[in-house]
Amino acid sequence: xxxxxxxxxxxxxxxxxxxxxxxxxxxxxxxxxxxxxxxxxxxxxxxxxxxxxxxxxxxxxxxxxxxxxxxxxxxxxxxxxxxxxxxxxxxxxxxxxxxxxxxxxxxxxxxxxxxxxxxxxxxxxxxxxxxxxxxxxxxxxxxxxxxxxxxxxxxxxxxxxxxxxxxxxxxxxxxxxxxxxxxxxxxxxxxxxxxxxxxxxxxxxxxxxxxxxxxxxxxxxxxxxxxxxxxxxxxxxxxxxxxxxxxxxxxxxxxxxxxxxxxxxxxxxxxxxxxxxxxxxxxxxxxxxxxxxxxxxxxxxxxxxxxxxxxxxxxxxxxxxxxxxxxxxxxxxxxxxxxxxxxxxxxxxxxxxxxxxxxxxxxxxxxxxxxxxxxxxxxxxxxxxxxxxxxxxxxxxxxxxxxxxxxxxxxxxxxxxxxxxxxxxxxxxxxxxxxxxxxxxxxxxxxxxxxxxxxxxxxxxxxxxxxxxxxxxx
Length: 474
Ligand SMILES: Cc1cc2nc3c(=O)[nH]c(=O)nc-3n(C[C@H](O)[C@H](O)[C@H](O)COP(=O)(O)OP(=O)(O)OC[C@H]3O[C@@H](n4cnc5c(N)ncnc54)[C@H](O)[C@@H]3O)c2cc1C
What we know:
GO terms for molecular function: oxidoreductase activity. It comes from Effrenium voratum. The chain has helices at residues 24-35, 69-84, 104-122, 156-162, 184-197, 247-251, 298-307, 367-375, 428-443, 452-455; strands at residues 16-20, 39-44, 59-60, 97-101, 125-128, 150-154, 172-176, 180-181, 203-215, 218-226, 231-235, 238-241, 262-272, 285-288, 330-333, 338-342, 394-402, 409-412, 418-422. By secondary structure, it is an alpha/beta fold. Bound molecules: flavin-adenine dinucleotide. Flavin-adenine dinucleotide (FAD) binds next to α1, β2, β3, β9 and β13.
């Protein structure tokens, strides 16, 4: 497949490209375009990497139940490993993702998922009834080729031997190995440095894209309202929208045709684990899979129902916390005794403004306590923090910008020389390197990789038919 939507464009190298948005997607596009000889202006009103890209959990994984996303993410991991280099400047780890279940339904779901993920390219599936052949995760580094594929570990005793702090109720553990985390600011800085060191020298402009001027079907220039109040008109050969949660808003400057994107609030808790409940050097990314009830006493339950203000348009949906809760609560150690804790479903009902606020300030006051209550099911020791969370417990976050089929949005849209790069929801950090490369191939009319048609809009490769939700009990 070849990019060829604006074949009449006059020149390739030396092409002037304006990129809107200096998050991870914009940094990657700037890097990949500059490497190909384009002259890039990166327009960003905030600090570079200062919006959602600043607040992620910094994790990556290679398993997807989508034959387009597997090669896309493998390429991204390959690019991340190259940027990490011999000195591992982005602190890439390969601790893995561990999913735990205690119910029969959960066990079957993890088994089904492991088989499918392996079939879709996540590597060898190994089952362990004893630990002789199970490889423990290294504290750091990512180069050991054995850290690939998926391990299923059976039995509470085995799980306890590996992770003594995990509940004895856990009967099965799925450990996906080619996964871990990194320093996301380091990744962004490495891409920005590569962009500015390229021969064509990327320029950064502090301001926001405020208008797009067209000549016929093409974007001819981009009008920027600079942070110092002045306006600047940037004539260009191509315009790239990497606006994250603001992508739809920016794209309306180009076309009336809406992008298939929705924003979702997503927040994380940063716990100062002064009691050392979570071992920092051996714990992987951990997720509890089963549904559960939270342990409220009768009085608190009544109070939670009363507290619910959603009928008056509020965001406190506390009456739902007394019913069954989906699994999915997760954590990872973050160094210096800190632990990141998240539970996605708690903020999913919250509306997001057309011009989303940043930094995010609107999330549930009880979010840290709710994350603790959920995660206590997987790590009982976390219960010792109830009512005792230190004032240094922080909550921050940003937005998942999602497409309906959870695939990225990378390709031309709205004009022959206008392009979009984003929509990567939960995986926009790990996906950025490959997304930026794919975008640059579109702009520079290079041969496109197999996954290009799955990322364009409209999709040229239909979305996956099998939808497996690790958290679905039914
Ligand atoms: C709590 C949380 C945890 C996450 N965990 C992970 C994870 O573990 N792994 C993972 O891969 N992903 C994760 N993500 C997702 C990931 O962080 C995002 O997908 C990614 O950072 C999005 O990058 P971006 O560059 O598209 O958007 P952003 O970083 O938001 O960048 C968009 C930029 O566009 C700029 N902009 C807006 N309007 C304009 C304008 N008019 N002109 C110019 N610029 C403009 C904004 O200022 C902003 O800087 C997480 C997200 C959250 C919120």
